[in-house]
């Protein structure tokens, strides 16, 4: 059977190479990838909705408190799947994609095609306070990566197809094809050229058509603008931009703070128990934290904050607008806590939609504060709810254009384009100058594995240290005599540098040919002078597994050396030469800019 399959694939390859050009084939694949990513998104949503409907979740559980235990059940099911089926540590969906683009040539394990389809609905359906967008993007990316490998697509085109998959997934979930394209460019640091624009456009269109085919005209947000932007409200949108910037910084810092808080809990079982109980308590106090939160956003958009808040322990005081404001502000504070706790406890999900929930609550709070300040001001609460979402997306994701166009497409027009630009740009500028990296990119940036729009840095990130390490250097030992070194190493080497190592292969230093040149012909010294006499320190060291290629390049620049030793745990591995490093850089740059 495998032989027949291989023969069929070979026939397909031959037919494709003969009848379809590479450019046309990429266009075809982008459409297919968009459709499959859209289908994955629809599947994720439907599985999650089925679980929620089966459990009769939501506000109903406030009457009998059963929702308290649901997150623990969901996290337990995820834990069992990961331990006995997946058998690998879960990684953040978007961060793992970014790593595959920078260090794994766009290769993603085929297991990721179905893993997120199982664990994300279990997490969200049982009350985990995370979103489905990240898992949808991860599933689509895995599909596109493996499809590209099946058809022998090169790594650069495979990366483009992964971006196409993300565009297809987002377009399908939000029915916003333009924002989907911009997200792929902003988050995946894709160079937007006509070569990449058309595949992204095709994938985005096919993704949204998939959503229309399976979901009809069903939209996430039922909203139409009833109050257009007024110039007199400009200052309030500036204040909202500042507020969403502060919230974005809080969101990011809270994420890493809680992740670090869970690190001492080495056992997944303890993390599950602690996290599950914490989420359950938060859900009891603030029911809208349950699941993704789209119902909460929609209720705020239509002005029904009572329905948005649901049944809480504070129902006796809900008639007081300041209690409502306090509860909505509590959602702003605790959505980030609940989301991160869900992920830290072993759940699977994304941060994009929780960001929107937090932004909608904050925007509504700001509008209510303005309207109830007693100063005679009046603003549209639904408009502020929408634009609050844009401010949080711009700040948390460092993606202002995605935020602007996503909300503009959701509202079905550009009537709020000016306030969207004001709030999103202010939020982005303040957050970017306070927090260098997003939740997606911080760990990758610290390890030097992050692709950015900086072409030089991107090329260095794509380079692999293993490809430039040279090992054809003759090793010498400190207790060797000068004669032994000349006979066993110098005479047999084409190099003018010799690494000195001990019996355990620990790197001690180097000897240059110039160091021994004046003693080479003095035979009296052959038996009396040891190698350690000529050994001296290298100008610098390259630490394997620790130094990024950016650091390696900087070390060559600072030291002025032409060769630097590579060491791992103190042991000698080889040398990197400046000439080979620059040659590899030029080669990668040509590939990157094709």
TrEMBL record:
Any Pfam family: Voltage_CLC
Topology versus the membrane: Multi-pass membrane protein
This protein's UniProt keywords: CBS domain, Chloride, Chloride channel, Ion channel, Ion transport, Membrane, Transmembrane, Transmembrane helix, Transport
PROSITE patterns: CBS
Domain spans labelled CBS: 469-528
Residue intervals passing through the bilayer: 24-44, 64-82, 113-140, 160-185, 197-215, 235-258, 270-290, 317-337, 344-366, 386-407, 414-431
Lineage: superkingdom: Bacteria
GO cellular component term, pick one: chloride channel complex
Molecular-function GO terms, alphabetical: chloride channel activity
Transmembrane helix recorded as keyword: yes
UniProt-listed Gene3D superfamilies: CBS-domain, Clc chloride channel
Cell compartments where the protein resides: Membrane
Name of the molecule in the record: Chloride channel protein, CIC family
Protein species of origin: Maribacter stanieri
Organism lineage: Bacteria, Pseudomonadati, Bacteroidota, Flavobacteriia, Flavobacteriales
């Amino acid at each position: 059977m495998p032989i027949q399959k291989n023969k069929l694939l070979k026939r397909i390859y031959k037919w494709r190479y003969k009848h379809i050009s590479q450019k046309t084939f990429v266009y075809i694949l982008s459409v297919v990838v968009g459709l499959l990513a859209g289908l994955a998104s629809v599947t994720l949503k439907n599985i999650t909705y089925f679980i929620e409907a089966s459990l009769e979740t939501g506000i109903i559980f406030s009457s009998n408190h059963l929702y308290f235990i649901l997150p623990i059940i969901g996290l337990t099911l995820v834990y069992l799947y990961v331990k006995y089926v997946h058998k690998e540590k879960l990684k953040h969906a978007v961060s793992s994609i970014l790593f595959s683009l920078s260090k794994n040539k766009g290769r993603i394990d085929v297991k990721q095609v179905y893993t997120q389809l199982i664990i994300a609905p279990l997490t969200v359906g049982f009350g985990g306070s995370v979103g489905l967008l990240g898992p949808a993007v991860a599933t689509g990316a895995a599909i596109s990566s493996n499809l590209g490998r099946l058809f022998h697509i090169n790594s650069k085109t495979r990366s483009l197809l992964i971006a196409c998959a993300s565009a297809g997934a987002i377009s399908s979930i939000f029915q916003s094809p333009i924002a989907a394209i911009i997200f792929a460019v902003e988050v995946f640091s894709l160079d937007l050229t006509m070569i990449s624009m058309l595949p992204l456009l095709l994938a985005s269109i096919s993704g949204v058509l998939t959503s229309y085919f399976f979901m009809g005209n069903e939209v996430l947000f039922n909203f139409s603008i009833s109050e257009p932007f007024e110039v007199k409200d400009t200052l309030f949108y500036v204040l909202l931009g500042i507020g969403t910037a502060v919230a974005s910084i809080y969101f990011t810092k809270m994420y890493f703070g809680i992740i670090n808080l869970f690190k001492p809990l080495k056992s997944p079982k303890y993390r599950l128990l602690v996290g599950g109980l914490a989420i359950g308590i938060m859900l009891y106090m603030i029911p809208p934290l349950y699941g993704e939160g789209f119902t909460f956003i929609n209720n705020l958009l239509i002005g029904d904050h009572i329905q948005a808040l649901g049944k809480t322990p504070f129902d006796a005081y809900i008639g007081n607008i300041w209690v409502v404001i306090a509860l909505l502000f509590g959602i702003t504070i605790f959505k980030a806590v609940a989301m991160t706790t869900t992920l830290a406890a072993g759940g699977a999900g994304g941060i994009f939609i929780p960001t929107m929930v937090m932004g909608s609550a904050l925007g509504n709070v700001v509008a209510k504060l303005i309207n109830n300040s007693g100063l005679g001001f009046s603003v549209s609460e639904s408009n502020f709810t929408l634009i609050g979402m844009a401010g949080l997306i711009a700040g948390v994701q460092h993606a202002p254009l995605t935020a602007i166009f996503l909300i503009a497409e959701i509202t079905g027009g550009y009537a709020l384009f000016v306030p969207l630009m004001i709030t999103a740009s202010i939020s982005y500028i303040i957050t970017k100058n306070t927090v260098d990296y997003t939740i997606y990119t911080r760990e990758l940036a610290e390890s030097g594995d992050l692709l950015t729009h900086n072409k030089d840095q991107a090329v260095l990130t794509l380079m692999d240290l293993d490809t430039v390490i040279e090992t054809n250097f003759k090793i010498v030992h400190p207790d060797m005599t000068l004669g032994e070194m000349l006979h066993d190493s110098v005479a047999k080497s084409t190099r003018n540098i010799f690494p000195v190592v001990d019996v355990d292969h620990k790197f001690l230093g180097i000897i240059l040919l110039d160091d021994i040149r004046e003693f080479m012909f003095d035979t009296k010294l052959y038996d009396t002078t040891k190698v350690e006499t000529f050994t001296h320190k290298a100008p610098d060291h390259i630490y394997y597994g620790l130094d990024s290629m950016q650091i390696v390049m900087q070390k060559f620049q600072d030291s002025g050396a032409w060769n630097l030793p590579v060491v791992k745990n103190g042991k000698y591995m080889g040398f990197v030469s400046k000439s080979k490093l620059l040659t590899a850089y030029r080669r990668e740059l040509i590939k990157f800019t094709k």
